[in-house]
């Protein structure tokens, strides 16, 4: 009989699937104890996974220690804090590390990160030193160094441009940090792009390292560039595991394009352009969908997705790459998902028919949440119209695409003004205003946020229910197990009449119910000719 532990957020089988797939998204949320070695690990530990009968799962590192397990020296699970339920201090450290990894120091500085976490700078520094032995600045410098190494080894950018593109304030600081991190000068590292559209080299994940695969330089930029020559443009290939379905992913972006923020060509396989919100302002990414081979023709284990970034400054390179990767879900492992769903009688055939289907993420959590509220109980086309009105009314115009909606302006409006300006119902206007107020007051909607707390805070807002909350968790929080059980199309695809029935059917798909939902949506809409 499979053992279970009541305090775990997932069943034993779901925990084992997460650990077998080395899914980093569950690091710090579940821990694996191996009875044959008395060692406990992160789910993402690269060591060979033990047999199920030798596994126990725990909600925290402290629970592992209490059960007699010692920390793995390879994946260092003791460097990850425990869950919020038992260790508030540790949870704060984990969130700080995730936000530094996401570039928070570059964006808002140590003072801004401390404010975001509601602690003093001194307290934040002391906690990080105690828990992981490094200050916020040291973690940020390590992140920049790893980002720079990716650009050095896989692009042909001049070293001075690499320095600023990876977030360093000066070439001197760049050189000193690279020597400290890698023991050699930047000029001694291998140079230049050695990849192709179908192959690439990834970057090892780590607490302060750049997430996901590497980048490799693509073709040069035309001299007939329509953008200002003062804006840096970089042609890159963002690496991801194969297979990757460009047709389905492009169709998703076309269906959810927001007027003023996204431009998707009407031609099948045509380019699409999307606004990206980076510390320096509004960047743009152009995705060359037509250059990506269909899954059946993709060879090798990795694929390069060709993009061109137009940036406010070179310092915005890594934030823009990270947002683009999140939007395209380039850090997913299709093989892991195929294994998880392969034996399921319903999902197995769907996963086999749609290899490489991804779960696109939100480029900005606040934008997505506001858009989702506007899209409640209306068609996709009507939702795009309302979202376009919100952008036109409350976002700053850019060179060719709008920037982010000013959430504070929306919160400051009366419900009546929002109702009249956006032409929505009074109840919808009140919900939109309340959500904007919560965002202004510090509600966090990004992959580093506390998922349980964020869900609870969203559900407290009048007009936001489980469906909206789960969509936000899926796209904005990056929760692979988010599941909008009350969704009408999802329930029709499952052939059930209620959310509880949909929940029961989905239990075997944990911890990837979000991907299961994407497969079911895609199959149902295809069957309807959508």
Topology record:
Elements: H1 12-20, E1 31-34, E2 39-41, E3 55-58, H2 61-66, E4 70-71, H3 88-101, H4 104-116, H5 121-132, H6 136-154, H7 159-165, H8 171-182, E5 215-217, E6 233-241, H9 246-255, E7 262-264, E8 272-278, E9 281-287, E10 302-310, H10 317-328, H11 334-341, H12 347-353, H13 365-374, H14 380-394, H15 407-412, H16 415-422, H17 426-440, H18 451-459, H19 466-475, H20 488-494, H21 499-506, H22 513-527
Parallel strand pairs: 2-4
Antiparallel strand pairs: 1-2, 1-3, 5-6, 6-10, 7-8, 8-9, 9-10
Helix pairs in contact: 3-4, 3-5, 3-6, 6-8, 13-14, 13-17, 13-19, 16-17, 18-19, 20-22
Keywords: Activator, DNA damage, DNA repair, Methyltransferase, Transcription, Transcription regulation, Transferase
Catalytic activity: Hydrolysis of alkylated DNA, releasing 3-methyladenine, 3-methylguanine, 7-methylguanine and 7-methyladenine
EC number: 3.2.2.21
Report the sheet-strand fraction.
5-15%
Radius of gyration: 23 Å
**Oligomerization state of this entry?**
single chain
Low-confidence stretches: 1-6, 80-90, 194-229
Q: Which of globular, elongated, flat, extended, rod-shaped describes the shape? A: globular
What distance separates the N and C termini?
44 Å
Total discrete domains: 5
Provide the residue-averaged pLDDT.
82
